Amino acid sequence: MLTDNRKMLSSGVIYLCSSILTQLVNLLLIPLYTRNLTQAQFGQYDLIISVQMLLSLVIALGVHSGMVRFFNEFDDKQELRNTALTFAAAWGCVCIAAAWAVSPLISPFVFGAVKDAVLFIPYVVMISVVSCLNLVFSSFYSMQFKALKSSIIQFSVVLSTLLFALYFFMSKDMGIAGILRAQLFSNALVFAALFLLNIRTFRFVVKRDPLRKMLGYGMGLLLGDVSAWVLSLSDRFLIKAYMNLSSVAVYSIGYKIGMLINPAFITPFMSVFTAFKFKAYKDEDGTEKIRKMFRIYNFLGWLCVLGLTLFSGVAIRLVATEAYDSASSLVPLIAFSYFLSGSLAFYSLGLHIANKMRTNYLISLLAAFINVVCNIVLIPWLGIYGSALATVISYAVTSAVFYHYGSKYYPLGLGLLFPYKYLAVYLPAYAAHTAIMRIVHSPLAEMALNVFLVAAFVACSLFFRFISIKELLGDILPLANRKSKTLMLEGVKPE
């Protein structure tokens, strides 16, 4: 058990470091694009990327998820991986051929007279196909607890994208087509390296039973994945319909900064909590253990929301031009919506324990429907801020529904309104920052103010007993104490 815990901890640290490094490289790409594309062009590019993410779901058919699900149920792991790769490559070739065939027909209607628009759809499909193949390799390594190899794949793709973008986008001045070509070449380069490294163990093979199980599981997730896409990315198309591409561009920048809460906190936290919850819920004191994790999640989550809120102006000035300054007002709503989405892992636990996946998917569909309706109502009234608010409303309602149904099968007694208690601390800090920054324009003064407000948030959270020092440090201090005792004992051992 100790070995497993160490393995999980080391893997979690590696994934956290990789996630942060990957996001840092991505942040380098943003100013590259915003400073060399018009707002309308950047908005167009963001829509194309949104379409790519949707097509990736259809093209992948969840085969990598199926491989992960049944990885431990087949003795021949290499054969399982090879079956996934062979199917993904064959199905991908069909998708690529179809993309090249239909692109000349539909590109003029979708993209108008944009330069090289006929290349957009084929490029997007090819990127999706190759990235799916890379994902199979990454998942294969991940299931073997080879976190470093798995992490290197994604980081290599992002880093090589930056290098290819400097050539195709900057040097060759190919515009959006150059960005897409950079992504295609980077994914293809990483796949070629992976293929060569694994060529001795690769065979073109399709085993019926493993493929049937992988596709059955993966396609079963497709509806939920599409619903998640609608919830997260469909708002861009509604903003374009009601407003313009420049508004899409501003919204996209605010979204990219706000969603940094995901790699910085939510993803690493959930990588630990997912394994923890399915083990802890069986224990006699399992509910209390999970409630403790919930309180820690809320404190750290709100701390990240506040941090992103306070430093949003600085972050946007670093990655974009003055034309995008208004995006900073979107960051609090986007960060908060991601915080709420992370809390679903707690509220939906009962459904997962009872294996009520159909209910889970229906709730996801409800969330997508609410999001679309709220966008239609709020965008004409509040513009891009209405779209961000629609995302918050969708996740808030979804949390309530998951809480209701999840509690039927595994009541945790979390309290649906508990996360909103932190508004009593967050809102005054946000209001103070907004008021002071209207009269203070010094970057150093802003940094000092932000640090003070973060410290005040921590102090107030402890004062109002939203969290306790024991809850935050209860597991850390005993560990440090045991470590110090071990070192002392080792120090007095005779030679």
TrEMBL record:
<feature type="transmembrane region" description="Helical">
    <location>
        <begin position="152"/>
        <end position="170"/>
    </location>
</feature>
<feature type="transmembrane region" description="Helical">
    <location>
        <begin position="361"/>
        <end position="382"/>
    </location>
</feature>
<feature type="transmembrane region" description="Helical">
    <location>
        <begin position="388"/>
        <end position="406"/>
    </location>
</feature>
<dbReference type="InterPro" id="IPR050833">
    <property type="entry name" value="Poly_Biosynth_Transport"/>
</dbReference>
<feature type="transmembrane region" description="Helical">
    <location>
        <begin position="330"/>
        <end position="349"/>
    </location>
</feature>
<feature type="transmembrane region" description="Helical">
    <location>
        <begin position="45"/>
        <end position="63"/>
    </location>
</feature>
<dbReference type="InterPro" id="IPR002797">
    <property type="entry name" value="Polysacc_synth"/>
</dbReference>
<keyword id="KW-1003">Cell membrane</keyword>
<dbReference type="Pfam" id="PF01943">
    <property type="entry name" value="Polysacc_synt"/>
</dbReference>
<feature type="transmembrane region" description="Helical">
    <location>
        <begin position="214"/>
        <end position="233"/>
    </location>
</feature>
<protein>
    <submittedName>
        <fullName>Oligosaccharide flippase family protein</fullName>
    </submittedName>
</protein>
<feature type="transmembrane region" description="Helical">
    <location>
        <begin position="118"/>
        <end position="140"/>
    </location>
</feature>
<feature type="transmembrane region" description="Helical">
    <location>
        <begin position="418"/>
        <end position="441"/>
    </location>
</feature>
<feature type="transmembrane region" description="Helical">
    <location>
        <begin position="253"/>
        <end position="276"/>
    </location>
</feature>
<feature type="transmembrane region" description="Helical">
    <location>
        <begin position="296"/>
        <end position="318"/>
    </location>
</feature>
<keyword id="KW-0472">Membrane</keyword>
<feature type="transmembrane region" description="Helical">
    <location>
        <begin position="447"/>
        <end position="467"/>
    </location>
</feature>
<feature type="transmembrane region" description="Helical">
    <location>
        <begin position="12"/>
        <end position="33"/>
    </location>
</feature>
<feature type="transmembrane region" description="Helical">
    <location>
        <begin position="84"/>
        <end position="106"/>
    </location>
</feature>
<keyword id="KW-1133">Transmembrane helix</keyword>
<keyword id="KW-0812">Transmembrane</keyword>
<feature type="transmembrane region" description="Helical">
    <location>
        <begin position="182"/>
        <end position="202"/>
    </location>
</feature>
